[in-house]
Design goal:
The protein has 212 residues and is α/β, with parallel strands linked by helices. Helices cover 21% and strands 32% of the residues. The chain has five helices and eleven strands. The mean pLDDT is 97.
Length: 212
Amino acid sequence: MDHRKKALLLGDYTHPDWHPLQGVDAEISRIFHDIMTVQCSENRNMLLQENITGFDVCISYMDDWKGKVSPQQTAGLLSYVSNGGGLLILHNGITLQNRYELKQMIGAKFLQHPPYAPLEFTVTAESHPVTEGITGFTLEEEPYQFEFGSFSETKVLLEYQSEEGPKPAAWAHRYGLGRIVYLMPGHHVPTFAHETYRKLIFQAGKWAARYV
């Protein structure tokens, strides 16, 4: 009997805009292997209430910058999180923001990014379970920039250094009974091989899935 919790990883194999799920799926499955099984899919209907309910955490690596999930899929994800489900969003997974209801739940929206570059990340919330034991690290990444909504009480966990000063790179908050974490890095497979970032993903998934 497998007593591990269950994660649903959603991304794009067939028609990604920029970030295919191939390769990333294997890394994420390895990161969580000891505590969670990871089911990987590009089928958006997994977000429907009857399909998503069986999972402890949903991980979004969706890469559809022009499309939207359907109203039914949106309702499924909103209901899932507000009733206690976890949502971990990695890098381009923030394309969920194409539905305004999901953008409000995430707490911020992607605006743009300057060119891929080496980025220096610093922890801004050392006492949070997601960042516990994490120290500053450097990664070559796309420096995503965000605009935060005024209604969500979100906690910024990481910042990266830009020419204009520090910018948010990760945040976490509760939504209803559920928990949401966003981690900015994740542009391609090499990012997921970085030891510190793997630990960050692991702890984010643990917190979102209510292990801690």
